[in-house]
Amino acid sequence: MTSFSLDDLAAIVRSRVGSDAGASYTKSLLEKGPARVAKKFGEEAVELVIAAVEARTPEIVGETADVLYHLLVLLESAGVPLNDVLAELQRRTAQSGHAEKAARNG
């Protein structure tokens, strides 16, 4: 198992905020604004879904990496720390998925 984590990737994304857009894809994407960041995330998510439906394992791995990266760029663009998302996941996993969903819908 790798020691690379989502925290590592989030730190890399965060460090690119001050970069030059000509040298950093992350910075160039962030400069295009939240709508473009969200659109790019959506495109990557659709590509992952297609790879999963077609059971193409190598593509699933690559597209998942793209989705995770673009998700972290989206969070950075929105000013939402990854730790806030992880805290929400931790809160939700304290109960069954059915109970958690019922609580959100109720």
Structure characterization notes:
The protein is mainly α. 75% of the residues lie in helices and 0% in strands. The radius of gyration is 16 Å and the shape is globular.
Task: Describe this protein with a few key phrases.
single chain, about 110 residues, mainly alpha, 6 helices, about 75% helix
Reconstruct the topology from this structure.
Layout: H1 6-16, H2 25-31, H3 34-53, H4 57-78, H5 82-92, H6 97-105
Helix pairs in contact: 1-4, 3-4
User: Based on DSSP secondary structure assignment, what is the total number of beta strands?
Assistant: 0
Q: Measured on Cα atoms, how large is the radius of gyration?
A: 16 Å
| Major sheet | none
* Mean pLDDT, all residues: 94
Low-confidence stretches: none
Order of helices and strands: HHHHHH
Strand coverage percent: under 5%
Distance between the termini: 40 Å
Helix content: over 70%
Quick rundown:
With 106 residues, this protein is mostly helical. It is built from six helices and no strands.
